Amino acid sequence: MPWSTVLRVSIAPRIGLLLVLWLFAYRDSVTELVTRGYWDSVAGQSSTLLVWTAPAVAACAAWEGVRIRQSRALQGAPARTFTSVSLVTLAPTLALGVLAVVLSLGLLLPQAAGSPDGTTAAIVALQLAVVTAHTAVGYVLGLHLPRLPAVPVALVGSFVWMAYPAAMNVFWVRQLNGTNLAECCELDQVAAPRSIIAPALVAVGLLVAAWLVTARGRGPRLLAPVLLAITVAGSAWIVNPLGYSAAEPRSTTARTCSGAHPQICLWPEQRAAAKDVATWATDAHNRLTAVGVTTAAQLSPRASTPTSDDIRAQVALSALPGEIPACARTGEWPGNQAHGPLSAWLTITAGADPEVVATRYAPAEVQAAERALERPPQEQRLWFRQNAKTLTRCDLQPVLDAERP
């Protein structure tokens, strides 16, 4: 059959137009979640769009399965094998899946910087495997289910499998459909190999099971669900240690550190802002030191494109305890009331824009910080030290009013 005829009779080009429009419409919802400049995050977030791509190709493949069955092209003694007929029939659908995966990544490319690495390639390969598996399963449903429910069953079934696990508390299930990579990655994280291998195995299992269902003879068909169950069980065992996360810590050897007060450690994606970060961090450190506040010796910015307010806030908040006291887990902790005012006071003292700070804390907390800022430096130091003690104990009450402590 000429390829022009294959494309003309296929439903994939028509569904493809709708899918492309939908991916463009959904782009902004994904873009805002990307860690700018970081390829692992770009590739991981692009997997979110599989929620739409996989059902689309499954429905198209089911339609093709119904059409082939009605044409009886696979009955009797055909001149071509089942595999060759199926591949030609599904070629437009597979092409749609590949184009959708490429488009999903392409829509987020403005957020990337530098060159992709092996992890990006592995994530894209996983997405292609998922699309191929859903195509195969949809095709088999079209070949075996009644004509009317075949396409809806493929569409809804694929969508439920791609979308519903994200709402489940059974974490290993969330890892098996290929979309949980959207949980990755911050700058200090990389995609865990387990989070790629496990859904890839499930995709291969679905593909092989679909092929066994179409084989002649009862034996292979009975083997299909057994093989799929083993694949799912093995994949669940692989990802179980990850919990809900698809990431693991990134090696700190990729960071470069410089300076002394504080020492600033940057990931490759942050190095373009190194000079500004050093200026902001040093100034914040000096401002806080002047009022007797000790900050962390090392700073590693969290954002790929940090702002002055971000850096100053991070330097400032390093002066506070990182965890709540043990007593707070079993009883009342009055010092909790001091955390917001102290944080606001530290951040403003470090040189952050007071208007920006006011958007990050409750009005009462900002007002308490502003009253403290009106005092002489010596009194501000005493106010901070007295209230900071309440963050590590449960037997002290914070004193946040404007009166001298």
TrEMBL record:
Transmembrane segments: 7-26, 46-66, 87-109, 121-141, 153-173, 196-215, 222-239
Residues of the DUF7224 domain: 264-394
Keyword Membrane (UniProt): yes
InterPro entries listed in its UniProt record: DUF7224
Keywords recorded for this protein, A-Z: Membrane, Transmembrane, Transmembrane helix
Protein name from the UniProt record: DUF7224 domain-containing protein
Annotated source species: Streptomyces zingiberis
